[in-house]
Design goal:
By secondary structure, this protein is an alpha/beta fold. It is 32% helix and 18% strand. β6, α5 and β7 (164-166) form a beta-alpha-beta unit. α1 (11-22) packs across α6. The radius of gyration is 17 Å and the shape is globular.
Length: 185
Amino acid sequence: MQRMVIFGLGYTARRIAARLEARGWEVISTGRQGTLRFDDAGNVRAALADAGHVLSSVPPGGDGADPVLETYGDALAGKWLGYLSSTGVYGDTGGAWVDETAPTVGTGSSGRRTARAACDAAWLERGARVLRLPGIYGPGRSALDRVREGRAHRIDLPGQVFSRVHVADIASGALAALGGPAGAY
């Protein structure tokens, strides 16, 4: 049986876990709905020792560092690695189109995007498949849901292009990345 440890079993990672489990994988996870607490180092390290695959959806910590790499990085060698990143790593491109070959935010700036870009780069250095995700929508997370809940607001930015991806498509992409080369997607 193939095993995957998922750090951060949130909205998107739950969909990926469900797809893996439907294919007969054992999924061990951290997060509010996960099977382990992130800070339960003994059990997390035991799970990592038995797993051939690791996926992280954990964002940078308040200090800008990646909590997974900081805490468990030494236990990741030799495993398939995946990281759910953000298209925010590209920064403000002034309306220019970007793809995975575009430069990411440099270390000269500061803030959340820079921290995400640094974590993204750290995962790439370890040979991870990095999925740079735009705005995520799906069941319970759509414009229509926000209208129904009274939380919708109009965004009127002439020339603004919004990039969104459905959570089911992310799950499909993550499973496709299991057989793909390391790098940014």
